[in-house]
Every structure is written in structure tokens, then in C-alpha cells.
Design goal:
Elements lengths: L7 E4 L37 H5 L3 H11 L6 E2 L1 H9 L7 E2 L7 H7 L1 E2 L1 H14 L3 E16 L2 E13 L7 E2 L4 E4 L3 H5 L4 E4 L1 H18 L3 H14 L4 H13 L3 H14 L4 H13 L3 H15 L3 H13 L3 H14 L4 H13 L3 H13 L4 H17 L1
Parallel strand pairs: 1-6, 2-7, 3-4
Antiparallel strand pairs: 5-6, 5-9, 6-8
Helix pairs in contact: 4-5, 7-8, 7-9, 8-9, 9-10, 9-11, 10-11, 11-12, 13-14, 13-15, 14-15, 15-16, 16-17
């Protein structure tokens, strides 16, 4: 039973929506960060802020060439954005797991939306532009990785010319940078976030990578760094709660979840994980009450049904998976992830024709060229084997 329980950790971008924190005071205490559970965590070096945003000379020259037209007082915002995406024959490639610092992202030409935003921030700042991070308030959105349900968030960046009478703009004074322009077209609400919050997101992603790799002490070193640099970033506490539960530190786990809920009582990820913890502690009535509340509030979220389909498919139940995917599609028939899920289920059920049709639909709704190519190759593979 326990092996199939959903538990959610943070990956790739991050966060759930939170209430205004202007009046909230919080501090990190030994009860919330328990170093005694991971006594060798200090052997894992966490990148400093300077290291995360560092650029070598090649990257700095790239930014200067892209932004500066005739002098340091003429700046080309869109020139920088275009240069970033045109750097190689295939442009900047999207990779979900590319949780890399700015300079590595620049040299690898591979990023997820967080590492793209970090790199672009560093390039823009070096060239004398202003840059603002934005967290996009998307509905809860999960993916599956190595048996984990990963809660994804989204972040993007606005680059602009400083408000300075001595500085002129070549073309537009600002540009938004995002791998998924659909996020901007859909006009999801977004809020500006600080550099410290972005660092917390980065550390959380690195901690999630370590957690998936079963490196619990390394995960703790990153989650601790995330919590310390931005104690109001609630997802750090949820992730710590998951980690504590995995090492059977149930009291510490409960404290971490409840602290996240003290920052935002509507954090369904924290509630869900608290319910799972209560099942582990045989507190079944409390667990069931929370679980019912969470499910009721998530019922209209297509990705809730999508993740149930993914879990069913993982244990070999394609028919049940298809039912869940189809519920998700009835709520949103444009999400490529759900369309791909339907294709996988039909393939498992032996209906190659329908699998191919849904793969083609997934490709049409893909947000970037990398996803389109991935689906196209699967369609071609199915056609050649048919």
C-alpha cells in the first residue's frame, strides 16, 4: 500500500501560490532544521549566490555584443533575447532537468525555465539592463519522475532598459523571456519575486534532484540552504517534510508541513503530504479527512486526473489510466502532456491507430520545438512499426 501512496516533492520550477507575506514574521529554528538527522550534510557544498549568477569572459562579451549598439548608452533589449535563442543551430534547447548555474547554462545551451531565467538575468545585468523575475501562478501541475510526483511551477523574466535619461533604447524598451510563450498568451497572473526567492527555487530543484537519486544528506543540504535564504518560501518546508518522512523522522516532518501551512493555509501540496504522513503514523481518520478535502478542491484541475493516470500506467493498469486521462482532457483538451498520456494508454491497450492520432495532437499543442520533435519521432516510430 505505501509504495503506491502519492507524495509530492518540488522540481524544476516551483512554488504554489501564497498569501501576501508582508506581515508574516518567521525564523528558522532547530526544530524545523534538524542537522542531527544528517550530520555529514556540511560535506556537500551548496553553490553560493555569486556562483549561481557568475559569467565567464565569453558570456560577458556575448552579452555586450548583443545589447550594446553604438555605445554604452544605446541598449538593445530584444537583441539580447534573440541572441540567446539563436546561439546555436538548434537554438537554446529546453531540458526539464537542466538545473544549472548561469555559466553552465550558457555553455551547454540547454535550460529549463528557471535556469534560462537565471542565465538571462546575469547576462542582462552585466550589460547594464534591468531584469525582474516573475513567478507565474499556474494551476497545480505535476509530472512523474522515478516514481515521484513532481509539482512543477513556472518562472519567467522581464528584461528592460533602465529609466535613465542618458540611456536610449534600440527598439522596444522591454522583452519577456520564456520558453513557453503560451504562458504569456494565456495571461496567467504573475508576481515579481526576489533574487533570494529564485535562489531558494534553485536550491529546491537541486535538492529534488538529490532526493530522486536517494542522496538524502545532499538533499538536506540544499533544502536547508533554500529555507535559510528565503524562510517565507513555503515549498522548502514541504520538501523538508517529505525528506524527514523518508528517513522516518515523523515529528520533524509534521512540524515542517505545519510550518508551510502557517505561511499559506491553502497549500494543497502541504496538506496532501500531511495526510500521507498521518497514514504512515496510522492516524487514518485524520488522514482521510484531509485527503477528501484535497481531492474535492483538486477535482476541477486537469493535472490532478493526469497524475492519477500516470500512476495507474506505472503499475500496468492502462484501462484505469485511460479513464483518468480522459477526465483530464474533458477539462482541458489542449495540454500536450495529457494528450501524450492518452496516446501511451492506447498503445498499451494495443490500439496503435488511436495512439498515433493522440501523439499527433500532442505534437500540435507542444510549447517548444524540442517537445514537437520528441512527439514527431514517436509518431514516426509507430508508423514504421505499424
Amino acid at each position: 500500500m505505501k509504495a503506491r501512496v502519492l507524495f509530492t516533492v518540488l522540481t524544476i520550477l516551483i512554488i504554489c501560490g501564497c498569501k501576501s507575506t508582508a506581515q508574516i514574521q518567521t525564523r528558522v529554528t532547530p526544530q524545523l532544521l534538524d542537522d542531527s538527522l544528517f550530520p555529514s550534510h556540511h560535506y556537500y557544498s551548496v553553490e553560493s549566490a555569486d556562483a549561481v549568477f557568475f559569467l565567464d569572459e565569453d558570456a560577458q562579451r556575448f552579452a555586450e555584443r548583443a545589447v550594446l549598439e553604438k555605445s554604452i548608452t544605446e541598449k538593445n533589449v530584444k537583441g539580447l533575447v534573440k541572441a540567446i535563442f539563436d546561439r546555436s543551430d538548434k537554438g537554446m534547447r529546453y531540458l526539464t532537468t537542466a538545473n544549472t548555474v548561469a555559466n553552465t547554462t550558457f555553455n551547454n545551451r540547454t535550460a529549463n525555465c528557471l535556469s534560462l531565467s537565471i542565465m538571462t538575468f546575469a547576462l542582462a545585468e552585466h550589460a547594464g539592463l534591468e531584469a525582474t523575475f516573475y513567478e507565474v501562478k499556474i494551476p497545480e501541475y505535476w509530472t512523474r519522475q522515478s516514481g515521484y510526483s513532481m509539482l512543477n511551477g513556472h518562472i519567467n523574466l522581464r528584461v528592460s532598459v533602465p529609466e535613465d535619461p542618458l540611456i536610449t533604447s534600440v527598439g522596444s524598451r522591454w522583452a519577456d523571456v520564456d520558453f513557453d510563450p503560451q504562458m504569456l498568451r494565456d495571461q496567467f497572473p504573475r508576481v515579481s519575486v526576489s533574487k533570494n526567492t529564485v535562489l531558494s527555487m534553485f536550491y529546491n530543484n537541486k535538492g529534488a534532484d538529490a532526493l530522486v537519486a536517494n542522496s538524502y544528506t545532499k538533499a538536506y543540504s540544499y533544502f536547508k540552504a533554500a529555507a535559510e535564504i528565503d524562510p517565507l518560501h513555503q515549498q522548502s518546508w514541504v520538501n523538508l517534510g517529505v525528506l524527514y518522512r523518508m528517513v522516518d523522522a515523523y515529528e520533524q516532518s509534521e512540524r515542517a508541513y505545519k510550518h508551510a501551512l502557517s505561511l499559506n493555509e491553502d497549500n494543497l501540496t502541504a496538506w496532501e503530504n500531511l495526510s500521507i504522513l498521518y497514514y504512515y503514523q496510522d492516524r487514518h481518520q485524520e488522514a482521510a479527512t484531509i485527503k477528501e478535502m484535497v481531492e474535492t478542491r483538486r477535482r476541477n484541475n486537469p493535472f490532478y486526473h493526469y497524475i492519477l493516470g500516470e500512476q495507474a500506467l506505472e503499475v500496468g493498469n492502462a484501462e484505469i489510466a485511460l479513464v483518468h486521462y480522459q477526465k483530464g482532457l474533458r477539462l482541458d483538451n489542449t495540454r500536450h502532456e495529457i494528450l501524450f498520456g492518452v496516446a501511451k494508454a492506447y498503445h498499451e491497450l494495443g490500439d496503435v491507430s488511436k495512439a498515433q492520432a493522440f501523439l499527433e495532437r500532442a505534437s500540435r499543442h507542444s510549447p517548444n520545438d524540442q517537445e514537437k520533435q520528441r512527439y514527431a519521432s514517436k509518431v514516426a516510430s509507430l508508423a514504421s512499426n505499424n
